[in-house]
Design a protein that fits this description.
The protein has helices at 19-31, 38-67, 71-97, 134-146, 159-172, 185-193, 205-217, 240-252, 273-288, 304-315, 317-320, 349-352, 368-376, 391-400, 436-441, 466-476, 480-488; strands at residues 100-102, 111-119, 122-126, 149-153, 178-180, 198-202, 222-225, 231-234, 265-269, 323-325, 329-330, 335-336, 339-342, 359-365, 383-387, 405-408, 429-430, 443-451. The chain is of the alpha/beta class. It has three domains: 2-226 and 434-445, Aldehyde Dehydrogenase, Chain A, domain 1 (3-Layer(aba) Sandwich), CATH 3.40.605; 231-417, Aldehyde Dehydrogenase, Chain A, domain 2 (3-Layer(aba) Sandwich); 457-492, no CATH class. The structure holds nicotinamide-adenine-dinucleotide (NAD). Residues 14-448 form the Aldehyde dehydrogenase domain.
Length: 492
C-alpha cells in the first residue's frame, strides 16, 4: 500500500481555471477504489498524527500569525482535538465500518438484513477562519474514516493556515485523493459548480444558503456547520463563582469571542443582575489583568473588516451609553478589550447579529419563562447555555429550547465530548460531526436485504384469488392467526 501512494506528488492548486480538472482527477483516483480499504484510512489518519507531531510548532506559529492565538490555546482548542479525533477513528474504525446486522421480518421471511456503510464518494470541505486548522482537518478525519476522496478549501481569511495546509497535506497524505485548494469566493464558486457526492461547509448562514443552493443542482447531501447567537441564561440559583469563570473562559478564552459556540449574550435573572456584573468584572480582571491589552492569553480580532464591524456595534449610540466595562480600542492593533454592555435594546444590531468578538451584551429577565421566550423568538442557536441549581429550571430549558446543543452549568465543553454530535438546527445548521458522527456524515447507510431461494408462498404471486388476498392482507396487517385461517379457506 505504502509505495502505492502519491504522497507529496501534487501541491496546492491556485487559480480557478484549474479546478474542474483537479476535481476530475480526484474523482478518477477515487473510482480506482484506493480509499476503500481500512488500511488506507488508517494510514491517512496516521499521516495526520505524524503531521501534527512533526509540525506542531509550525502549525501553532501559523495560527498566531493569522489570529494572534496564544500557543497553548491553539494546542488545546485546535491541534490536540484533531489528534484525538484521529486516534479515536483509528481505534473505532473497524467497528464503524462493520455492517450492522438487522433481523429479518415476517413479510420477507426467510431473510436477514445489514446496514452497510459505504463512502459517499468525493467530498468538498469548505472551512472557516476562526479555528482554521481544526475546522479544516477534523472534517477530513471524518471523510478519510468513511473512505471518501476530498478537496479541502480552507478560509482565505486565515491565509497563513491555508498556505500551511496546502504545503503540508501533500507531504503527509495521499494527494491523489486528498487535495487542498487555496482561494476565496471565486475559487469556492467554481468548486461549488462541480459535481460532488458530499459538501461539508463551516461558516456563516449567509454563505450556507449559497452552498445549499449549489448542492441542490446535483442533489448533493450537505452538512452545514453554521453560527448564530448562542444565549446564556443565568438563573437566580446559579453558582456564580463557578459559572462566571466558565462563561468568561467560553467567551474570551476561546479565540476572544470569535467562536461559533462562544456565549453571545447573557440573560440574567434581574434579582442577581448587579451581582453578576460585578463578579464578571472581577473575573475578567483576574483572568486578563487591569489592562487586558497586555495579556498573553487573548487572541486578536482577525482583520480590519471584522474589527470595524465590532467597533460599529460599540459606536451605535444605543449601545455606547450602556457599556459598563471595557470598550477600550486600538485601531492599529485590532484590539477591543473584553466589553460588557448592560440593558441592551432588543432591536439594536448587537442583539440581532452574531457578535463573534469580545463584546458581551447583558439583558435582565424576570425569570426562566422570559428567557425561553427571548431565545425562542430568535433563530435556533448552535448551542444554548443555562446556569442553575434548580432541576425544574434545567428541565424546562432542556425541554423547551430547540438548539444544536445545550450545556448545563458550563460553556463550550460539549465540543470536547466525541460521543455527542456537534451541529446546528434550523438557522445554525444541519447534520453533525465529531467521533462516529463524522464517519456517518461522509457515509451512506446502504440497506442490504439478503435472501436465499427458499420461502416463496404461492400467495405471493398472481392470480390473486380471494384466499390469497385474505392471506396477504392478514400478513401485511400483522394478523398471523387470520393468515393461517385464510389458508384453510374458512375465511371468506
Ligand atoms: P464565511 O461564511 O464568510 O466563510 C466560510 C467559507 O465560505 C470560506 O472558506 C469562504 O471562502 C467561503 N465563502 C465566503 N463567501 C462565499 C461566497 N459568496 N460563495 C462561496 N463561498 C464563500 O464564514 P466565516 O466568516 O469564515 O466564519 C464565520 C461564521 O462561521 C460565523 O457565523 C460562525 O458562527 C460560523 N462558524 C460555525 C462553526 C460551526 O462549527 N458551526 C465553526 C466556525 C464558524
Amino acid at each position: 500500500m505504502e509505495e502505492d501512494l502519491e504522497v507529496g506528488g501534487r501541491g496546492a492548486v491556485r487559480g480557478a481555471a484549474e479546478l474542474p480538472r483537479l476535481v476530475t482527477e480526484v474523482r478518477e483516483a477515487y473510482r480506482n477504489g484506493r480509499t476503500r480499504p481500512a488500511a488506507w484510512r488508517v494510514q491517512q489518519l496516521n499521516g495526520i498524527i505524524r503531521m501534527i507531531s512533526e509540525r506542531e510548532s509550525e502549525i501553532v506559529q501559523t495560527l498566531y500569525t493569522d489570529l494572534g492565538k496564544p500557543s497553548h490555546e491553539s494546542y488545546v482548542t485546535e491541534v490536540s482535538l484533531v489528534r484525538s479525533a484521529c486516534k479515536l477513528a483509528i481505534k473505532e474504525l473497524k467497528k464503524w465500518m462493520a455492517p450492522l446486522k438487522v433481523s429479518g421480518s415476517i413479510t420477507t421471511f426467510p431473510s436477514w438484513g445489514a446496514i452497510v456503510a459505504e463512502p459517499l464518494g468525493v467530498a468538498l470541505v469548505i472551512s472557516a477562519w476562526n479555528f482554521p486548522f481544526l475546522l479544516s482537518v477534523e472534517p477530513l478525519v471524518g471523510a478519510i474514516s468513511a473512505g471518501c476522496a476530498m478537496v479541502l478549501k480552507p478560509s482565505e481569511v486565515a491565509p497563513a493556515t491555508a498556505a500551511l495546509l496546502s504545503k503540508l497535506v501533500p507531504l503527509y497524505l495521499d494527494s491523489s485523493v486528498i487535495r487542498v485548494v487555496e482561494g476565496g469566493v471565486d475559487e469556492t464558486t467554481v468548486l461549488l459548480d462541480q459535481q460532488w457526492d458530499k459538501i461539508f461547509y463551516t461558516g456563516s448562514p449567509r454563505v450556507g444558503r449559497i452552498v445549499m443552493a449549489a448542492a441542490s443542482k446535483h442533489l448533493t447531501p450537505v452538512t452545514l456547520e453554521l453560527g448564530g447567537k448562542c444565549p446564556v441564561y443565568i438563573d437566580r440559583t446559579a453558582d456564580l463563582k463557578v459559572g462566571l469563570r466558565r462563561i468568561a473562559l467560553g467567551k474570551w478564552g476561546c479565540n476572544n469571542g470569535q467562536a461559533c459556540i462562544a456565549p453571545d449574550y447573557l440573560l440574567i435573572d434581574e434579582i442577581i443582575a448587579s451581582e453578576v456584573v460585578d463578579t464578571l468584572i472581577d473575573v475578567i480582571e483576574t483572568f486578563y489583568g487591569k489592562d487586558p491589552k497586555t495579556s498573553q492569553d487573548l487572541s486578536r480580532i482577525v482583520n480590519t473588516k471584522h474589527y470595524s464591524r465590532l467597533a460599529g456595534f460599540l459606536d451605535d449610540p444605543k449601545i455606547s451609553s450602556k457599556i459598563v466595562h471595557g470598550g477600550a480600542r486600538d485601531d492599529n492593533k485590532l484590539y477591543i478589550s473584553p466589553t460588557l454592555v448592560c440593558d441592551v435594546p432588543m432591536d439594536s444590531t448587537l442583539m440581532s447579529e452574531e457578535i463573534f468578538g469580545p463584546i458581551l451584551p447583558i439583558i435582565k429577565v424576570k425569570g426562566v419563562q422570559e428567557a425561553i421566550d427571548i431565545i425562542s423568538d430568535r433563530p435556533k442557536p448552535l448551542v444554548a447555555y443555562v446556569f442553575t441549581k434548580n432541576k425544574e429550571v434545567e428541565k424546562r430549558i432542556v425541554a423547551s429550547i430547540s438548539s444544536g446543543g445545550m450545556v448545563v452549568n458550563d460553556t463550550i465543553v460539549h465540543f470536547l465530548n466525541p460521543g455527542l454530535p456537534f451541529g446546528g438546527v434550523g438557522e445554525s445548521g444541519m447534520s453533525s460531526y465529531h467521533g462516529k458522527f463524522s464517519f456517518d456524515a461522509f457515509s451512506h447507510k446502504k440497506a442490504v436485504l439478503y435472501r436465499n431461494n427458499l420461502g416463496d408462498v404461492p400467495a405471493r404471486f398472481p392470480p390473486f384469488t380471494t384466499m390469497k388476498q385474505n392471506f396477504r392482507r392478514a400478513i401485511m396487517d400483522g394478523h398471523y392467526l387470520s393468515a393461517v385461517i385464510s389458508l384453510t379457506g374458512l375465511k371468506k
